[in-house]
Amino acid sequence: MAFEHETVTRVERYRGAIFDVFTDEVTMSDGGTAKRDVVRNKGAVVVVALDEQDRVVLIKQYRHALGARIWELPAGLRDVDGEEPELTAARELAEEVDLTAGRFDRLVELHTSPGFSNEHVLVFLARDLAEVPAGERHARAEEEADLEVVRVDLDEAVAMVLRGEITNAAAVAGLLAAARVR
Q1: What is the pLDDT confidence band of residue 145, given thresholds at 50, 70 and 90?
Q2: What distances in angstroms separate CA 50 from CA 6, 74, 132, one per listed residue?
Q3: Which of these, 160, 2, 151, lies nearest to 70 by C-alpha position?
Q4: Using CB atoms within 10 A of its CB, is residue 12 exposed (0-12), middle (13-18) or buried (19+)?
Q5: pTM of the predicted model, to two decimals?
Q6: How far apart are CA 31 and CA 56, in angstroms?
Q7: Are strands 44-49 and 120-131 parallel, antiparallel or unpaired?
Q8: Residues known to be catalytic
C-alpha cells in the first residue's frame, strides 16, 4: 500500500493572473515532513494543426524566460471559466494562426513539470483546416504581434524535435503523438 502524503501547512507566496505559487509542508514516506514549492497553473491547450498535405503549423514566438524565440505549436491558457477545452483550442488556433478546423481530436495529455507544477496540457489534433476570413482575424498584441507562422511537413517537424530545434515540451509531445497516430 502506498503512503498517503498529506499537506500539513500551506503558505501562499504569490497570486497572479496565470499562476499562483505556494509552499506546502508535506508528510513524507519516512515519517518526516518536507517543504515543497508549488506552482498552480490554469492549464493549457495545444493544437497540432495538420493540413491535407501532411504539414503541421508551427509558430516561432518570443519567450522571455528563455530570452529567445522558439518553435512551438498554436496554444493558449485555459483561462476562460467554463470553456470546453476543444473550444479553447479552436479559439487559439484562430487567434494565433488564422485557421479554423472542421475536426478536433484529443491527441495526448501531459503534465509539463510535475516536480513543482500542476500544469495540465491537453493536445488536440486539428484537421480539415480553413483560413479565417481576413476581416474576421484577431489583432495580435504583445509577443504574439510578430509570430512567425510556417507549415512544415510532419516528418520534418519530428526531425526538428530529434535535432533539438523544437524543445517546447507540449510541442514535442504533440508532434511525436501526431506522427504516431498518423
Answers
A1: low
A2: 43, 12, 16
A3: 160
A4: exposed
A5: 0.90
A6: 50
A7: parallel
A8: 144
Residues in the chain: 182
Question: pLDDT, tens digit, for every residue of 35-84?
Answer: 999 999 999 999 999 999 999 999 999 999 999 999 999 999 998 889 99
Secondary structure letter of residue 75 according to DSSP: E
Q: What is the DSSP letter of 180?
A: H
CA distance linking residue 121 with residue 128, whole number of Å = 23
Report how far residue 164's alpha carbon sits from residue 41's, in angstroms, rounded to the nearest whole number.
26
- SS3 letters across 109-174: EEECCCCCECCEEEEEEEEEEEECCHHHCCCCCHHHHHCEEEEEEHHHHHHHHHCCCCCCHHHHHH
- The residue assigned the cell 504569490 is 14
Report the alpha-carbon distance of residue 124 to residue 142 in Å, rounded.
25
Alpha carbon distance 98, 117 (integer Å)? 31
